[in-house]
Amino acid sequence: IQAIKDAGLKPGTDILVVSIDAVPDIFAAMVAGEANATVELTPNMAGPAFDALDAFLKDGKEPEKFIITESKLYTPADNPQGEYDNRKGLGY
Fold this sequence. Notes:
Layout: H1 2-6, E1 18-20, H2 24-31, E2 37-41, H3 46-59, E3 71-74, H4 80-87
Parallel strand pairs: 1-2
Antiparallel strand pairs: 2-3
Helix pairs in contact: 2-4
């Protein structure tokens, strides 16, 4: 975001800003109008992948082409101030 500002452009408007992991600072940036979205991937991604690998190694079962795991898209419509307030003390 700072690099966009340094280039004389407006983050979130001139250049869309989307992040991954839903860290607190991105919600603050959304509140300021400097970010457009973030995607939060859940820690549950490893389990289904491990299960598919385990089934392949044990039984030769081919894994599905796609393994759908849970994730969440946050936009300015999702109360970014509330999300920031809930996450700001998490240490990341």
